[in-house]
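Case study.
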Amino acid sequence: MSMIHVTTTINGVAQEYLCEADETLLDVLRDRLGMTGSKEGCGTGDCGACSVTVDDRLVCSCLMLGAEAEGRKVETIEGMAEGETLHPLQRKFIEHAALQCGICTPGILVAAKSLLEHNPNPTEEEARYWLAGNLCRCTGYDKIIRAVMAAAEEMREAS
Amino acid sequence: MNYQAPTSLDAAVDILAGAKGDCRILAGGTDLLVRMHSDMAEPDTVLDIKRIDSLRAISQEDGGWRIGAAVSAAEMGENADLVADWPGVVEAANLIGSTQIQGRCTIAGNLCNASPAADSVPALVAAEAKARIAGPDGIRDIPVEDVPEGPGKTSLKPGELVASIFLPSRPERSGDAYLRFIPRTEMDIAVVGCGVSLTLDASGNCVAARVALGAVAPTVIVVPEAAEALVGTSVDEDALTKMAAACSEAAKPIDDKRGTAEYRVHMAGVLARRAAVIAKKRAGGAA
Amino acid sequence: MALDAKMDGKLDFKVVGTRVNRPDGIDKVTGRARFGADMTAPGMLVGKVLRSPHAHAKIKSIDTSAAEALEGVLAVVTRADFPEVELDEGTWDVLDNCMAGEKALYDGHAVAAVAAASESVAKKALKLIKVDYEPLPHVIAVDDAMKADAPALHDGRQVENVPEGMGANVVARYEFGHGDIEAGLGKADKVLERTYKTEATHQGYIEPHACLAQVGSDGQADLWCCTQGQYMVRDTCAAIMGLSQSRLKVTASEIGGGFGGKTTVFIEPVALALSKKSGRPVKMVMSRSEVLRATGPTASSSIDIRLGMTEDGQITAGFAELRYQGGAYPGSPVEFGSMSAFAPYDLENVKTVGWDVVANRPKQAAYRAPGAPMAAFAVESAIDELAKGLGLDPLEVRLKNAAREGTKAAYGVTYPAIGLEATLRTAKDHPHWTAPLGENQGRGVACGFWFNFGGNTCVTLNVTPDGTVNVIEGNPDIGGSRASMSMMAAEELGVPYERVRTVIADTASLGLNDVTDGSRVTFAVGLATIEAARAAKREMCKRAAMVWGIDEEAVVWEDGAARPSGPNAGKHDPMTLADIAAIASNTGGPIAGHSEINAEGAGVSFATHMVDTEVDPESGAVKILRYTVFQDAGKAVHPDYVEGQFQGGAVQGIGWALNEAYIYGEDGVLQNPGFLDYRVPVASDLPMIDTVILEIPNPGHPYGVRGVGETSIVPPLAAIANSVSAAAGVRMTSLPMSPPKVLKAIQTG
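After joint prediction, the assembly is written out as follows.
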């Protein structure tokens, strides 16, 4: 089986990898690049745990081939903090206890960041609908939504 | 498996026509990759059409809109002019899956996946949209409802692919709407879907209408009786009741894990009525 | 260890009760935390399982030769590859569930497994395994499975008290209660008889089961996995594999949700068998479809209630007959259901009879307060219907019959101080109770109970030379327990929370710890943490006494320091933990405290839930408008995470009540093995979940801590059913209340 050579940018860093044609971007991130922050909860786009952005568009990395990332700009949870400085969403998630087990947290953070880039001042309802593709079984979403709204407010004030 | 990402439509058609074994088109991939994950599809070749510029565009044409086969639903929702002309079609496309799915899924893919429950298809059918099909013999345009032939089955010939969807120009005082019923608020497959497109005259009477139902038959169906119930009326209670009854009458659903046949028959009428009220309002009709 | 005397007048906590940041927070928001599937090993193979497509079939033969011959396949195992060892019945069932023997008992039952160099080779190999099945008749629904002529799953598994003539799938009978039901019903002004049904639901944790096994030829083995109990994994896998427990070291990864579903093993013994046979590390990760087809779920149920009430709301008698199918093996949670059904009430005449039934479905696993939500659905629905039928306030009726301190519970115990009444009174005074409702809207309330567990627990607390503290515990942190242990240790030692770091031990590094279940961890591990801290304090007081040259008894520990105390102690500057730690080498060596206990004194917990719903009369769709949880937590160690448990349980209950269900076809095959059609609540389905924490101290814990995690899933099914029934104007007795079902009920009245 011949491998496909892919050149892409992941979290701002140029990255090359070889992958098989049928490997998903999630497989590549986790198994080839050791970036296990993106999680596989379903493999069928129903849970959002593998959320990443590709060219600033929020997608499920389980529903995209690794080969498709050629020339694209991929952002994952691993790129969200700047060094030791957490993104406001990451900080608010900790402060608001918006995670229990933490398995859905990377995907939700990536999705929430994308939300605030598209809509810096979302209503609670808009936040809930934007995040409807990110399942969380622990929290009942309450503290997640509160954390997202709090981060949005802080980010608006800072800008 | 072999992955191909041509940059021209001609090249794509050549690959598709010349492919050995099972060659699948990859647009948004939100159905294809699910099938591959579930071992329901094991293609020999995956043909990614997202590198073909012409298929990535939304453009105005003859007063209508041409939407390339690789345009995502999210991109449709971000085009304000398109939304203004065809709010029902766009809202239907924007109901497919989650935000994440929206970033990838396409209406051409939704059509070619040939699910009777596809959200965008009843709206496209109601809109009298045309599918432009490219193949070894060139280009042809066909009504979108002629693409799916049954669950998972299309009328496309070997070597053919849907290159774009065309939404015709709108007469004044036209409106469209799509509603579906799902158990949750998001993330479900439609139990029933209904697209309505109509045009009013200056006095508010309906002069043209088209009603399509999803998930009540092996393919999305057009319900001419429902349209007839609206045409010539002010889309009043009486007309809506007749229209709803026509939809329930036309629905020939099955029992499955997503709903009973009985429920779907009932909901076909309920949704059609609600969708028609929205479409009428969008067409500028009186409440 | 009983409630500290000083608790009587509100203990003055410094750390406990605050809302500190959790220590694993940064790892979990940056993607660094390592969950089950995030571990690798050099030379690792991919393991995959072949599963039965039949609901019930005899396995006549399995031909693995073609798979074994495939390039890249290093091992294929079937049941024949597991050692012939003596196993108790329960462990044998676990093994048979992990790898079928003579029969496949449900759709998705494992029948063979492969280890290969890559995922794609493993998938190919599975297709090359030829299994010769002889399909057998199957049975899915609990009431069908109980019939005398139903297809039998097992022979000879009925316990002795099952009456003769019952079908072979009825495997056990339970009975609880006291008084005289018929006499009690005779005193009632109104008697209600109803049958209630619930469907099987899955725990629905987002992290699929995953493990990495490594077996050496010397019999030493290592296993990394996501589990609620690494010791349970060790003991079960060691028994199945014929290993000694000390030779198998199990390390618990971060765990991506469990809710009871990770209190047993599924792929772990298989990975060990594949590793043993291949001589290579083997990693296995379940797909979501495998998770739904072959793990979890909880029981489906069918419950008859007879309930008598006087005109003024006194319950004169309560009877429940509960039938739970727990999948293909004995062990449905019907015993807990039978014990808990009437637990919130002080009843003179009460009886429950429970039937444990097997059917051709995956072996049930514990699910948050196992067995209790269905029982509460039936009892709380019946109370609601009777109260409304008599024109009574449903909260008043519950208050009138509420269990209190000294009440003899239906399941036999006499309650110490409990919080049910407080939850009801708080609910009644809450603005939610009197908020106006609109058209097609309804309000429902219900109560719930859970026992809470204690159990085997070990904690070691090490004081480091620089004066900070490590707590080592043996229960995976499933929702903030490292934070709460660090808080309790900090509280006890009088040091800042940030100076304590709690880690989770592997099975070789600490003594036996029971599974993270029964809401036991904050209570029992907390107890052991406090005891370990107290042992360390005693040692530090001893060291200070040595330095000061006074008696140990003349030293006390206060505000994080040893201080001289009493008339003969003399004047000495206090020695802080850091002071003592710094010179520990010179005063006798390192300082540690530890505790090994079988914790008793877990305090039962009660909740009252209140929910408003709106029903669309045209579609039967239900919208949750407002939800408030009132629960007694005992002392809330970390209020944020207590609230989180209340909210999470309530929302799982909402899913169970409205849309979640295992759906089977006529062929006995699961129709919805994915998150697309197994419909857990999504963010847009819900409002905020309001919470009111009540803190009625548990007399069995020094800080008054009770478990909090499970009670919150007990009331929602009934609270929502009562609310929907009010909104729709028709009584709902069957879950899930899916739109077609609600519409049908409205249409048929």
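Observations recorded in class. Chain B has a mean pLDDT of 97. Chain B touches chain A through 27 residues (CB under 8 Å). We will return to this complex in the next lecture.
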